[in-house]
TrEMBL record:
Residue intervals of the Bacterial type II secretion system protein E domain: 90-365
A Pfam family the protein falls into: T2SSE
Organism: Vibrio olivae
Family: Belongs to the GSP E family.
Protein name as annotated: CpaF family protein
Domain of life: Bacteria
Length: 423
């Protein structure tokens, strides 16, 4: 065991030392004492407070044994005990962040740089890891119950924790400055339309229009950047579907919380350590078409599954929805064209655009402003192909200067008829 006296001498440890070197040595000491006292098996109990009392006793014992001159109030000792417990049975320094309901994302860029997102704004947290191996140990603890692994031969991994949170990890040699971990926390209580209105993400008129579109079974594409709120909006809109409809959802990581009673949830599967066993979104979309769905909801369009999704929209599966990464509605349609081509569909640009235009009814653009505020910046109707270009019409728009949502166009006669028939 590292000798804490040699490390700190008779001086009181600095906060940085207490967080790192001393804590690592203290952790090792406590584990040895718990094993000697036969308490190591108590760590399996779900009642965390059963372990905290002996932990505080071991902390005082450690300071006395190593003659460390440090004065620590009882509440700080209790906090340190909780940190040690997190290290033994949780996810170490980020366990507290995972329990914090105000944190949406946790981003770890090596052991010394931990960032969190609250209300759309990134800020650096005070939490630290001891070293790069400490980060990797926490990553492996997350992956172990999932049957996944990460090492030099498999240095990248996407996974979903038991609580629904999504994680992405990448380690050296690919990550040059140390192991990186990204955690997108899963909200048990999803946002509602009331929350969107309160946060001024959209106007009441926009919400009413989108509700009508969903009920009228308009095919909908939600576009936006990473973290803009695409999945959140998809989650809310999907709750306006008819409860009698059979809905099949396809996601890389299951996040949708539909309240319908007739839902089939499908999730992709990455390849195993031997590189086999992968099940892609495209395979699941093809399989979904054989399951007699009324609607298909694709969590994210990113590859060849787009072609099958568009074909489904054009062959009776009205009211289907998906999200896509793009900076504007026009960019979203261009990306759809590109992904159809990359899927191996051989035809003219004009015909591909006709396929896209006939499949998609509306595109909703979601943006995150510099302040962290998320807004629906545009609702666009997709009309037809004219002069070899997809013709669109903006119906609603957010104006940053006045911070107001305004209706700037009327739905076409074709869309109006569809909305009226749907109601």
């Amino acid at each position: 065991m590292m000798n804490a006296i040699n490390l700190f001498g008779t001086k009181e440890p600095s906060p940085q030392q207490l967080d790192l070197e001393l804590k690592a040595d203290l952790h090792k000491y406590v584990l040895e004492q718990m094993e000697d006292d036969g308490l190591i098996y108590d760590m399996s109990t779900p009642e965390r407070h059963n372990i905290l009392l002996p932990l505080t006793s071991y902390i005082h014992q450690y300071f006395d044994t190593h003659h460390i001159n440090i004065s620590m109030p009882d509440h700080e000792v209790d906090h340190l005990a909780k940190q040690l417990l997190d290290e033994m049975v949780g996810y170490g320094p980020i366990e507290e962040l995972l329990r914090d309901p105000s944190v949406d994302d946790i981003l770890i860029n090596g052991p010394k740089h931990v960032f969190v997102e609250r209300n759309g704004v990134l800020e650096q947290a005070e939490h630290r890891f001891l070293n790069d191996e400490h980060v990797i140990r926490v990553i492996r603890r997350m992956l172990s119950p999932l049957g996944r692994r990460i090492d030099e031969s498999n240095p990248m991994v996407d996974a979903r924790l038991p609580d629904g949170s999504r994680i992405n990890a990448i380690i050296p040699p690919l990550a040059l400055d140390g192991a990186c971990l990204s955690v997108r926390k899963f909200k048990q209580d999803g946002l509602t339309e009331t929350t969107l209105l309160a946060k001024e993400t959209l106007s009441q008129e926009m919400l009413s229009f989108l509700k009508t579109c969903v009920k009228a079974r308009c095919n909908t594409l939600i576009s936006g950047a990473t973290g803009a709120g695409k999945t959140t909006l998809l989650n809310i809109l999907s709750q306006y579907t008819n409860p009698s409809e059979r809905i099949v959802t396809i996601e890389d990581a299951a996040e949708l919380q539909l309240r319908s009673s007739h839902i089939v949830r499908l999730e992709t599967r990455p390849p195993n350590s031997e590189g086999s066993g992968e099940v892609t979104a495209r395979e699941l979309v093809k399989n979904a078409l054989r399951m007699r769905p009324d609607r298909i909801i694709l969590g994210e369009s990113r590859g060849g599954e787009v072609l099958d999704m568009l074909q489904a929209m054009n062959t009776g599966h009205l009211g289907s929805m998906s999200t896509l990464h793009a900076n504007s509605p026009n960019d979203a349609l261009i990306r759809l064209e590109m992904m159809v081509t990359l899927a191996g569909f051989r035809s003219s640009e004009t015909f591909i655009r006709k396929v896209v235009a006939s499949a998609i009814d509306i595109v909703i653009q979601v943006n995150r402003l510099p302040s962290g505020k998320r807004v629906i910046s545009d609702i666009v109707e997709v009309e037809s192909v004219e002069d070899n270009q997809i013709k669109t019409k903006t119906l609603f728009r957010y104006f940053p200067g006045t911070k107001r949502f305004e209706q700037v166009g009327q739905p076409s006669a074709q869309l109006t008829t569809k909305l009226e028939e749907g109601l």
